[in-house]
Amino acid sequence: MYAIVRAGGRQEKVSVGDVLTIDKVTAKAGETVDLAPVLLVDGSTVTTDADVLGKAVVRAEVMAATKGPKIIIQKYKNKTGYKKRQGHRQPLTQVKITSIDA
To answer: Keywords assigned by UniProt (predicted)?
Structure first.
């Protein structure tokens, strides 16, 4: 059984035991969060009905708070002496899928 869940601004394919990195969640390590399923697949049964998916729950345990790779932003304008350099690391959360209940 697997599910497509909405995690932040993306959709992820998950099954029980998967570890994935999603956008930052406010929960602390060890707590559980519920992810909204968009599609459930159990063998040959595919569920996309909104009423059934409203009752379905995909639970995940928060493992750790992490950061994404360093991204360098540079701006430069010729002949004016304007240079600007800035860095960014996106805050992320690592979760492990514990159960998919339909």
So the answer is: Ribonucleoprotein, Ribosomal protein, RNA-binding, rRNA-binding
